[in-house]
Amino acid sequence: MARINLLPWRDQARRLRRRQMFGAVLAAVALVLLVGLGTRHWIETIIADQNLRNMRLQQEISRLNIRIREIRDLEQKKADLLSRMNVIQQLQESRPEVVHLFDELVLTVPDGVYLTRVEQKESRVEVEGRAQSNARVSAFMRNIAASAWVDDPQLLVIENKDQTGTGLSHFRLGFRQVRPDEEATDT
């Protein structure tokens, strides 16, 4: 008699294919999970490294900002010191100018002219006084124009005031104080 296999071979083959399929799907899922976890770990490592670099850069930027502030402070102090040095140098250079101004006033004031006030603002000098006549004021102005240390005389006011009974005219005169070498370079 012929042997007939009554066992459900199709069911067994189906079960075997299901197991193989399930194993293949499980292996694929496991592989996808491993690749996904590996990729995630790799990306997290890259992000951590970049964050570490960013933190180092921020620290360096902070350190450099502090240095920049210090440099700006030093530059400001330097500018202040240079300004002070210039002022001191100008004061040192102008010390003898007051002496020259009064020397020139003594030399340029003619007889019959009496000064009552002398005021200086920078290089501009203004004098007030009394004179016996307008001709004496004119002589004073000519002497100023001929002087080496003062020039540019300008008569501001001249009035005949005889309130005191002295017969003197009141005048106000302005001129510029110069250094002899300045006057030579101006012309």
From TrEMBL:
Coiled coil feature spans: 47-91
Membrane-spanning parts: 21-43
A GO BP entry: type IV pilus assembly
Keywords on record: Coiled coil, Membrane, Transmembrane, Transmembrane helix
Protein's UniProt name: Pilus assembly protein PilN
Species of origin: Thiohalocapsa marina
Lineage, highest ranks first: Bacteria, Pseudomonadati, Pseudomonadota, Gammaproteobacteria, Chromatiales
